[in-house]
Amino acid sequence: xxxxLFWRDVKKSAVAFGASLVLLLSLAxxxxxxxxxxxxxxxxxxxxxxxxxxxVVQALQKSEEGHPFxxxxxxxxxxxxxxxxxxxxxxxxxxxRGLQLLIRLFLVEDLVDSLELALTMWLMTYVGAxxxxxxxxxxADILAFTLPPLYEKYEVQINHYMxxxxxxxxxxxxxxxxxxxxxxKKKPE
Length: 189
Known about the structure:
Radius of gyration: 26 Å
Shape: elongated
Largest sheet: none
Strand content: under 5%
Structural class: mainly alpha
Order of helices and strands: HHHHHHHH
Oligomer: single chain
């Protein structure tokens, strides 16, 4: 994935970006069932056409090349129980961490963190009023394919300004916490 996002192989990245953008734009205008059906029909049209073309060429040339997708038909695509369990264990670990974080935030273990979440969710109401979910996914797709190469090119300047922003934010939070004694964060023990 990282190779695609950093455009190491321009052709593969362009195909991935174009396909994902077309898929998301299709989902923005059509239902998911319609998009899946059209993608499946397009894929079937290509594979059936290629299969018929190869069969006709073989019949005319009287050759024995065989099935054009033989190498793909012979691939072993089974998932071993061990591999499946390993992936499920990783997902379960991430799910458990996420649930613990949600419990900590919503049950106000740390007031500052919960207030930050509340502020973020309040801001997200405004984002939600302007954009719907699929539009945000389209923007995320575009940003995912443009920001990594830009960051790689201008890494020094971006890190410099991000350091300044972090320092100013830290200073601002310290001033706010000093004014409101109930918001002082607990120091890790």
